[in-house]
Structure formats: C-alpha cells, structure tokens
Specification:
6 helices, 32% helix, single chain, tt1808, chain A, alpha+beta, 190 residues, 8 strands
C-alpha cells in the first residue's frame, strides 16, 4: 500500500488522487482473498464515539521537517490524521510587514522544493496571530488565497477556522470533518 502512495505523482494530479483516498474512495488489492477491498484511511465516524473509542490518531506537530536528498523544508505546524499530514500552517511574526505574504511565499516554495510532501497536504494557512489566510496547497495564486473573516479581528479561539478548513478537505462528510478537526485542535491546545 505504501508503495502505491509513493508512486503518486508529486503534483496536483497526485494530490487529487490522494484526496480520493482521504475520502475513503480508494481500493487496494488483498492478495490473500484475491480481490479488491475498500481502503479506509480516516474513520469519519469518530464524531459519534467517545474520545476513548476513537479509531483515528490526531496529532499536531511543530517544525515538520522533510528532506528529499536535494532540498529540505520545515513547515511550522502540521495537522496529521493517522500520520497523514493534511494541513500546514505557516506562522509569522506579527511585527513583520507583510507577514502573511511571507508565509504564503514560503508555502509556494514547498511544491517546488519538496513536492512529495505536498501530495497528502490538502490545505495551507498562513498567520501572524492577527490575520489568517488559507488556500489549497497546489494553487497559491493570489486570487485563490482567502482571508479568514471573523466578527472580531484576531479571534481564533473558537476553533472555527480549523473546523472549516478541514471541512473543505473532506466535503463529502459534512459535519464529520468539522468535529474531527475540533477534537484535533482541542488536543493540540491542551
């Protein structure tokens, strides 16, 4: 199975194919039974289970480093579900001018330098603790980068940003993606 994912193209097409797998729309060949089976990477029913019965592992890591033999990248914060990096956050100093633009520029380098790490990552964000910009990892053209709007500038404390971002990456699962993300974010903050 790992070999199949390693063979995905390190571009928008590989990202698209991996998104199908994240939506549990992928199959794999099970040799013992000589047939294809459905592949479940993320169990979206965690929403309906108590935390101690979750089947997924939710992690948030700082300084996610990748080196492909030629280039290395260090993403500031990465959200992982079952070890799969699905969301990258670039955090910049609020005292810098154009801090969010610097974060977006840094994110633009990743597909050029370490494209293989961008295959499973569906979304990116850039923040300087006051503003918050987001977009999809393979299209960082300015018109496709959006500013998060909230009633209070800088109010990210209600987890709404992360709820919505992960909801975008799994649109077929409605509120399930949001709840999983809420638990992830809550665990990261505790």
């Amino acid at each position: 199975m790992v070999g199949e994912f390693q063979r995905l193209h390190s571009d928008i097409y590989g990202n698209r194919d991996f998104l199908q797998a994240l939506r549990n729309q992928h199959k794999f060949f099970y040799a013992e039974e000589n047939r294809e089976l459905d592949l479940t990477l993320i169990d979206y029913d965690d929403l309906y289970r108590p935390r101690q019965q979750w089947r997924n592992t939710y992690e948030v890591t700082e300084e996610f480093y990748t080196h492909n033999g030629k280039y290395g990248t260090r993403e500031d914060v990465v959200f992982l579900i079952n070890g799969i990096p699905v969301l990258v956050v670039e955090c910049k100093n609020a005292s810098k001018e154009e801090a969010i633009a610097l974060g977006v520029d840094q994110t633009r380098r990743y597909p050029e330098e370490t494209p293989e790490v961008m295959v499973p990552q569906m979304l990116f964000t850039a923040t300087e603790a006051i503003g918050f910009a987001y977009g999809v990892t393979w299209n960082t053209v300015r018109r496709n980068i959006f500013n998060w709007k909230h009633e209070e500038v800088g109010n990210l404390g209600d987890y709404a940003v992360v709820h919505e971002l992960l909801h975008f990456s799994v649109p077929n699962h409605g509120k399930r993606g949001k709840a999983s993300c809420a638990h992830t974010w809550a665990r990261a903050r505790s």
